[in-house]
Each structure stands twice: as structure tokens, then as C-alpha cells.
Amino acid sequence: xxxxxxxxxxxxxxxxxxxxxxxxxxxxxxxxxxxxxxxxxxxxxxxxxxxxxxxxxxxxxxxxxxxxxxxxxxxxxxxxxxxxxxxxxxxxxxxxxxxxxxxxxxxxxxxxxxxxxxxxxxxxxxxxxxxxxxxxxxxxxxxxxxxxxxxxxxxxxxxxxxxxxxxxxxxxxxxxxxxxxxxxxxxxxxxxxxxxxxxxxxxxxxxxxxxxxxxxxxxxxxxxxxxxxxxxxxxxxxxxxxxxxxxxxxxxxxxxxxxxxxxxxxxxxxxxxxxxxxxxxxxxxxxxxxxxxxxxxxxxxxxxxxxxxxxxxxxxxxxxxxxxxxxxxxxxxxxxxxxxxxxxxxxxxxxxxxxxxxxxxxxxxxxxxxxxxxxxxxxxxxxxxxxxxxxxxxxxxxxxxxxxxxxxxxxxxxxxxxxxxxxxxxxxxxxxxxxxxxxxxxxxxxxxxxxxxxxxxxxxxxxxxxxxxxxxxxxxxxxxxxxxxxxxxxxxxxxxxxx
Length: 499
Known about the structure:
The chain is of the alpha/beta class. The chain has 3 domains: 29-95, Elongation Factor Tu (Ef-tu), domain 3, CATH 2.40.30; 99-372, P-loop containing nucleotide triphosphate hydrolases (Rossmann fold), CATH 3.40.50.300; 379-498, Lysin. It has 16 helices and 16 strands. The strands form 3 sheets. An 8-stranded mixed beta sheet has the order 8-12-11-13-14-10-15-16, sandwiched between helices. Strands 1-2-5-4-3-6 form a 6-stranded antiparallel beta barrel. A two-stranded antiparallel ribbon has the order 7-9. β3 (52-56) and β4 form a beta hairpin.
């Protein structure tokens, strides 16, 4: 029998002990104790953090929104119907991120970055957290570059600048989305990337927006983020944050972005739904107390960065739906106080045929002339006052029949101003076209034309502008200098003579 060497065995054991690697993995796990409507209550996640991403079975993810004494309240993304009581939940140690980058241009995606347009997978390499601290005061620059909408009344009376937040507000079916879509269409060849975020919209509406943008070549520089009405409240809550995270990727790379949130009323309703299901105390109109913070931390991420950070910008156009024109309701006043002005659309104007139905009295841009080209600023200086005095005079004179010639002339000019400011859907104008028609209006060159012939005269004016030698020189001057050409009167007299 062979002799056993005890020393050899002990040395082998010692080597084994030295080579042993501790593969014990500690995980912070909990159990689902209740689930319903995309909301999950979890017991046992002692170290969970606010906003942390949770991992559940069947590739379902959760986001921590409530930290209570014994439980954690989370909203779920994915097929939450496959989750049942007793399922194990793990903390990921990460916050929610979405893929970003130029790979998404031309695509329709959900708020998690998954394509929903049937055009195949999107291979993105970059990710950004959906919640990001807004740029500080020192990182910003004052708004100084115009973002042309191609809509006469907006560019003249309520100008929008790159980096501005301009609210579009009005009742249902008054043309709010149309203004946003026209603005996106007008960014063609303007070096602006556009993101349209559809929150709680019908899928047919999102499809028609896609078709219109695609038909006009605008999808080449656009992304649509859709959380339709059929999607759970968790995705509708997430959608605008996903959109602005994508926008920030472009902004911090020195690019200009236009983002449309359509609409934040439905976003507030989705957040109210989540909050009430999480048993948060309701406040005014059953909205949670932090609904103001919900929208302010979203809209504050729109900015014009200073030159050291690349000079990029995010221009935000949030849309809010009012009930019976009540601009003083809770959510409208919240968003008005966060934004840099509002475009108020009035039902009465819309149904009387004034489209876009913009109420010039209640619509305002707090950036003002800083967001206008010098040429448009010059020709539109008295326009708001003219419109206001016309509306006042119109209300006053409907009770009397005897009018002096001066009052009649003022009323006639006012009617023509309203007629000129009307614009057909998806018919955006260049800056030079806007300048020429507004110059003709304010300088009295349309005073001798019948109201019924205004639209035809306008078409002829644009045609003459593009074909005549003087007109071509005016276009070149406005495009290069941005100021009002000195030969405008010569051009208008020439047009009147050849008309």
C-alpha cells in the first residue's frame, strides 16, 4: 500500500483555496404583490432608487416612481399582462435610457426607441437617459435666430426663435396640429431636425401626419415618436421625455432641432392616471401636485446653447387643448407660465373662415423682434395695432350705419388685412414672399383692390416676384442681407402697371 504524503495533500488544498474565486452575486430582489393597469406594487426592494430601472420576467421593464415604507410603486413597459403576483423583480442599478442618433431620421418609433413603421430594426450605437438636467443659465445664449414657420400671421405677429418655447393653445379641431406640421414642412433646407411627439393621439392621425410629411419630403429630417391612445399611460407619460432626449443628442452636437409635443393635455391626463393608481394624493382638478414640475422639467430642456457648447438649439412647440376656449384652466395656465409665449387659436375665427384662426390679441411672443428678420420686422411693425383697432372699430360700427370716409377706409384696410393673413393648409411661404405681401398691404398698394380679388392678386404678386428681374433682385437681397430692399416701391409700381 502506497504511503500518503500528508504535506503534499495539505499543500494541494492550500493551492486550491488560494485559487478559489468568490462568485457569490448579491442582487436586490423583491416580489410583485399587486399588478394592474400597467402599475406594479413590489415588496422587498429595500435599496431601490427613484427613477431606477427594474427587470421583471418576460422582458418587461419597470420604472420606480413611488418609494413607500414597505413597498415600491413602479410603472411597467412592455407586455405587463404577462406579469403576475409573486414574480421576482430585480433592481438593475441603471436609470432608463433610450437609443438616440441620426439612424432614427425618417422613422416612426415608440417611446422606448423601438421602430413601429415596419421598416426593420434600427441599429443605434448611442444612448441617453430620458431624464436629464436642463442646461444651466451660463450654458445658454439669448434667442436671436428666427425659426421661420412659413405662416404669414405667425412670422409677422408671433415670431418664433430657435431655442424658444412657444405654446399652441386652443379648442379641439381649431388647427393646432396643422400649424405645427406646416412649421415642420417649412424647415426643409433650413438645417433643422424635426421631432413630432404624438401623445394619446389616434393611430390614424399619426399615420396621416406621417403620410403628409413623407409626401412633402419632410421625413428625411424628421422623427415621429408615437404613444397612441391605445397604449398604456406609462408609455404616454414617457413619450415627450424620449423625444427631448433624442433632440438633446442633436443639440449638443451643434445642430438645431424643432420638437412638437402633441399634446401635453393628454400627457397630464396620463400622469394623473398613473398618480391616482399609485395612490398619490390628488390636488386641483384631481391632478397631482407635481404636474407643474412634470411639464417644467420637460420644457426647460429646450434651449439655445452658447457658442462654446456648439450653439445648437431645441425649439419646443407644446400643444394644449382647451375646453370651450377656457385659457385660464389649470393645465393651460401651468404651461403658459413655463413657455415664452402662446399662439391662441379661436373657434369663432376658425368657423368664420379665418384660417389660421389666430387671435392676435391673446397671442404673444415674449422673444418678439429678436426672433425676426429685419425685413419682416420693418413691414409688420404696425400690423398688430392695425388688427386690434379694426376689431374694436368693427364691434363699434355694427350698431351704426352712418360712417365717415375715414372710418370706412380703416374698416376696408382691416378687412383686407384679415384677408391677406389667411393662408391655406400646407401652403408655406418663403421670407421674401411674406415681406412683399405685407409691404403691399401696409403701404396701401392693395387699397384699390376689391376684397374678392385679394387672393388672386396675391398669387400674381408671388409669380411676378419670381419671374421679373426686379423681383429676383429683391429675393436675393432679402436672402443675403435680411433687410428691406430700397427698390420695394419701384417693384410694387412695376407690378401694378403690368398686372
